[in-house]
Amino acid sequence: MPNVTSVWDFSPGETLTAAKLDDVNCGIHVFSGTATRDAAYGGSGERTLAEGEFAYLADSNTTQYYDGSAWQTVGSSGLVCVKAETSFSASSSVTVDNVFTSSYTNYIVDINYTTSSTGGVNAKLRASGTSASTNYTYQQIQGFTTTASTNAYSAQTSIAVGYYGNGTREATTIRIMGPQLAQATQFIVAGGGLGGALVQNIYGHHTTATAYDGLELLPTSGTMTGTYAIYAYSKALT
């Protein structure tokens, strides 16, 4: 069954085409992602979105229902996968768009990677395919071998989310609070690098009061290879 782009609202005497009949007979409508799902309701000849509508999202392999105010994921229990594990290879920049939506408020990004050089991994919020490159402020606490240190940064072009050593396997978990809200977005980061010799904790925020739908990950030098996945915290008991 192909992805649906409209949810039809039929009128008396209207011609029922084969394509429209296929849509009707598909049961739960299948959409390529949240953008296609949202565009399928409320337009000319389309049904108005109402409580009880169901949708299947092909990009995240999830079934959702509309509760009258927001889309909820069927069978979710705490964390909902909104971006399935995705691989990247020898990349100087990794971008993901249309992943932060009004269906959820807070998110987790898990990254596992190796790199071609030694340096930092930074992140930028994105809106409509464009990365925001101003107004990141954060505090970093880290332990390297037996030495602890702190650093504070303000008015940065991105936020640090990890450190890495050439060829070593690293891992970072990023909690992002409220990226889809028109207010400052908060970050809490836990990660390690240099083969386990470095442990980092970072708290920061992006002070621009804008709603964002995506994220960019980029090493400060060289390239990185690995995987990432993005999860959302469910806002309702299921």
Can you describe this structure?
The protein has 2 domains: 18-73, no CATH class; 79-233, Sandwich (Jelly Rolls), CATH 2.60.120. Helix content is 6%, strand content 50%. It has 2 helices and 17 strands. The strands form 3 sheets. The chain has an 8-stranded antiparallel beta sheet with strand order 5-17-7-13-14-15-10-11, with no helix packed on it. Strands 6, 8, 9, 12 and 16 form a 5-stranded antiparallel beta sheet that branches. A 4-stranded mixed beta sheet has the order 1-2-3-4. The protein is elongated, with a radius of gyration of 21 Å. 30% of the residues are buried.
- Order of strands in the sheet with most strands: 5-17-7-13-14-15-10-11
Sketch the topology as an H/E string, one letter per element.
HEHEEEEEEEEEEEEEEEE
**Radius of gyration, Cα only, in angstroms?**
21 Å
What would CATH call the class of the largest domain? Answer: Mainly Beta
Structural class: mainly beta
**How many domains is the backbone divided into?**
2
Which bin fits the share of residues in helices?
Answer: under 10%
User: What integer is the average pLDDT?
Assistant: 86
Spans where pLDDT lies below 50 across 5 or more residues: none
Main pleated sheet: 8 strands, antiparallel
The total count of strands amounts to 17
Per CATH, what is the topology of the largest domain? Jelly Rolls
- Judging from the principal axes of the Cα atoms, what is the shape? elongated
Q: Which percent band covers the strand fraction? A: over 45%
Count of helical segments? 2
- Termini Cα gap: 28 Å
